[in-house]
Amino acid sequence: MDVVNLEDKFGRISEHWSPKILAQLNDYHVKAVKLRGEFVWHRHDETDELFLVTKGSLVIRFRDREVVLGPGELLVVPKGVEHLPIAEEECEVLLIEPAGTPNTGDAGGSHTVEPEWV
Predict the structure, then answer these.
(1) How many CA atoms lie within 13 A of 34 on its CB side?
(2) Is 58 left (phi over 0), alpha (psi -120 to 50) or beta?
(3) Angle at Cα 112 formed by Cα 109 and Cα 4, nearest 5°?
(4) Which of 27, 74, 87, 105 is positioned for an S-S bond with 42, CB 3.0–4.6 A?
(5) Strand 116-117 and strand 66-69: pairing?
(6) Which CATH superfamily is domain 6-117 in?
(7) Is 77 exposed, middle or buried (0-12, 13-18, 19+ CB in 10 A)?
């Protein structure tokens, strides 16, 4: 039961689109990630995905609309819904999803990373 200081943890992250595990809650990981630029279209067929912006602004594009999140705002993307995260400027985001969930969902490819603890 250690306190997690978000400012400290985000300060240790230099890569974009490379989630780092901060904590485990039952079978879920709480991850910190810095985002900048455009990711890849993907979906998670088996799980919802929670995005919580702590700093900056994040656009999550869907096939039929876009949602813009600012600091202190969150969005749950339901399982099976294709989405494309975009951050024009660097932003900091917390993700909550089941342990072992690939960051690129069904898309795979070069953006897929195995998250490490930070």
Answers:
(1) 13
(2) beta
(3) 170
(4) 105
(5) unpaired
(6) Jelly Rolls (2.60.120.10)
(7) buried
Tokens 């294709």 sit at which residue? 82
Calpha distance 50→47 (Å, rounded): 10
Strands 66-69, 58-61: pairing is antiparallel
Per-residue pLDDT at 64: 97
- pLDDT tens-digit profile of 1-39? 899 999 999 999 999 999 999 999 999 999 999 999 999
Domain ranges across the chain: 6-117
CA dihedral 92, 109, 97, 117 (to 10 degrees): -70
